[in-house]
Amino acid sequence: MYNQIMKQIRQNLFEISAIILISIIYIISRIFNLLHLPIFTDEAIYIRWAQIAQNDAAWRFISLTDGKQPSFIWAQLVTQKIFYDPLVAGRMVSVFAGFGTLIGVFVLTQVLFSNKKMSLLASFLYLIFPFALVYDRLAIYDSMVAMFFVWSLVFGVLLIKHLRLDLALIFGFILGGSVLTKSSGFLTIYLFPLFLLLFNLSRKGIGQRFLKWILLFGVSVFLAYAIYSIQRLSPFFYIIEQKNATFVYPFSEWISHPFTYLSSNLLGLVDWLLKYMTLPMLGLSISSFIFLYKQNFKEKAFLFLWFLGPFLALAVFGKLIYPRFIFFMTIPLLILSSYSLIYLLGKVKSLYLKIAIMLIFTCVFIYADFKILTDFKNAPIPRIDLEQFVNGWPAGGGVNESIKFFEEEAQDKKIIIATEGTFGLMPYSYEIFLNKNPNIEIRSYWPIKDTLPEDIVKDSSERDVYFVFYQPCPACDYPGAAPISWGMEKIKEYKKGDGSVSLSIYKVLSSR
């Protein structure tokens, strides 16, 4: 037995070494400068929810108050016990989820094409994929969504090939995790006919095997819905449907204007796809149907449709869309790109030519990765993501600096921090890091009116009161500024990225 194991290791030494190397580079790339990008609005919300759920078991379903499924928040309950810094704890959930996606890409490619070199190449492409590098380093849901999506494809393929109950149960648990993460997880269930592309029509007993697959798939779906129903323990379960209607048109609303927003949605989605996938890599994906077009056609069509189906569904039904919504959809395209690359590399014998081919198709990825890790505000990614994460009002520029300022101010006296906004970056980013400071009281206000809140005016006679502004408001002259009528003294101002938005700290003039 020992000799057989050693023989297998020697035979697969290259693949094992490559997997280990890719894994090491993955970890380094995801944790390098992990805190370089400041916390942004959604991260602040999710991390604060996790803190509350950690301290009070009655609030384990707190995310449902905003219509968000809880699995990402629950994952943070684990990482918060491992990592001291709350932002690191939140982002490490995505780092781990991204690693799960990396392994899933390898396994899915192997299951479909039985080619270890192609599987390694597909994993490598995920490793350097700018889309993945951005979202595997943020404390938001989307890396976990991608992980469940890839593994649901893995076990969906295994199920239709082998028709086993154990695979159906595992598939069901993965689907359950997927729908417990985000509503987009239901797409794997809704688009289940795509798995029939891989149904073996050459074997005998087609009808019997088809019926068995339907029954086994039914078991998986039943298990997924049972897991999803855990959320019914919370009285806020109904809010999920309301929240979904914010981002996707319900059918009852969509039917009155079925294609009104299709062209504008497609323009945005295609632009984001081109920015993150890049033309060379998209060209490789399409070329996979040209190179050896008769070979593995079903498998390639399967992957392409798992991109195209969700992509078109979002274009048709999308109401409020962001680039992160298409992240999970792009992963099948990476596998198709690896198919074309393997073909091209196999056509040349010179090592230098092989390296040249790899550089030609991956240099744009690598350049984008370098900018993402070292100079995010100038990274060649969609403008809307730059606005969200570094240049616009949702970004957390100035949060770290202002926290240090308030900690110094509160060393020997009690202060009040008032924030513009009651939900989101403010006050949550301050509550995350300052809530345990006995000398600091955090209050939040919205909407911002023409006059100072009465309680602030009253308390300013007893304590130093600071008001933080960071976003547009009707009474403010510009984002990050206080209303002139409030008559406060500006103490600090921190510009966000390359944008025109600032985070500003004002001191309320005391009547003492």
Describe the model.
This protein is an alpha/beta fold and 512 residues long. It folds into two domains: 12-386, no CATH class; 399-507, 3-Layer(aba) Sandwich (D-Maltodextrin-Binding Protein, domain 2). Helices cover 60% and strands 6% of the residues. It has a five-stranded mixed sheet, covered by helices on one side. Strand 1 (415-420), helix 21 (425-434) and strand 2 form a beta-alpha-beta unit. The chain is globular. The N and C termini lie far apart (84 Å). The model has no long low-confidence stretch (mean pLDDT 92).
Q: How would the blueprint of this fold be written?
A:
Blueprint: H1 2-11, H2 13-31, H3 41-55, H4 71-82, H5 86-113, H6 116-128, H7 130-135, H8 142-162, H9 165-179, H10 187-190, H11 206-228, H12 239-247, H13 251-254, H14 262-277, H15 279-287, H16 297-317, H17 327-346, H18 351-374, H19 383-391, H20 399-409, E1 415-420, H21 425-434, E2 440-445, H22 454-459, E3 464-469, E4 489-495, E5 502-507
Helix pairs in contact: 2-5, 2-6, 3-4, 3-5, 3-21, 4-5, 5-6, 5-8, 6-17, 8-9, 8-17, 9-11, 14-16, 15-17, 16-17
What share of residues are in beta strands? Answer: 5-15%
Helix and strand succession?
HHHHHHHHHHHHHHHHHHHHEHEHEEE
Distance between the termini: 84 Å
Largest sheet: 5 strands, mixed
The largest sheet has its strands arranged as 2-1-3-5-4
Count the helices. How many?
Answer: 22
What is the domain total for the residues? 2
User: How confident overall, as mean pLDDT?
Assistant: 92
Oligomer: single chain
Number of strands: 5
Rounded radius of gyration (Å): 25 Å
- Percent of residues in helical segments? 55-70%
What general form does the structure show? globular
Helix/strand-derived category reads alpha/beta
Q: Which regions have little confidence, pLDDT < 50, spanning 5+ residues?
A: none
